[in-house]
Amino acid sequence: MFREIYRGYFLELYNRPNHSSEKYYSNYVSTYIDRDVSELINIKDKLKFHNFMQILESLTAQQLNYASLAKEVEVNAVTIKQWVSVLQASGIIFLLQPYNESSIKKRVVRTPKIYFIDTGLACYLTKLKDPESLLASNFAGAFMETFVVNEIRKSYLNNNKEFDAYYYRDSNQNEIGLILLENGKLTLIEIKKGVSFHLSDVFSFQQLKNSKYEIKESCILCNTEKNYPLSKDIFVMSVNTI
Question: Exposed e or buried b for every residue in 89-117, given b needs 16+ CB within 10 A?
Fold first, then answer.
C-alpha cells in the first residue's frame, strides 16, 4: 500500500514504470505553476505559491485553517482562499466538509479537511524519497487516510455516483474520519494504521446515535489481514476491501 501511496496514480508513471517519479513530479510542479496556474491567477511570487503547496501538502487529512496558512506563507487570508480554490478547480485537492445536522450543530466544528487527490504528488512535495521513509515518518497516518479516502471517492466517481461524504469532529475532540450519506443512510468509517481494535476505538460513533438518518453497518479500515466484528454492526476491515 505504501509503495502505491508513494508512486501515485498519474497515468504516465504507469505507462513508463522505470521513469523516476521524483523527476516526473518535479517537472509537473514546474509546469503547473508556470503554465496552468498563471492562466487562472496572476502570481507575482511563484516561490510563495510553491511554498504554499508544500505547506498545504503537510496538512493533507487535516483541518484547513486559512488564517494560519496566511501567516505561514506571508500572504493574506483572501489570497490563501483564492489559491485553495485554484487547486480545487485544477484537481489537485478536494475539501471534505464537516457533517452537521440539527441534533449536533451546537458542538461540531465547521472547518473543512483538505486532501491531496494524488498521494505521489503529495510525497514529492514533502521531500520523502521512498516508501520506507514515508512509512517511518510522522506523515504515514495522514497519507494512509488520504489514500483510503481517495480510493473510496474514486469508486463513487467512476460509477457516476455522487460522493456525498463528510467527517465529524466536535468541541470534545470526538472524531469520525469519514461519513458516507447514501439513500438516506449513514456509513461511519474510521481509518487507522494498526490491526487490533476494540469498541472503545469507535466511541465517537455514538455521537450520531440520535441522527435523523439510519446508520448502516460501519467499520474501521486498517492494516488487518483478517476482517473481524466488534459488534453486530461494526467491523474491522482490511484496506484491501476497498
Answer: eeebbbebebbeeeebeeebbeebbbbbb
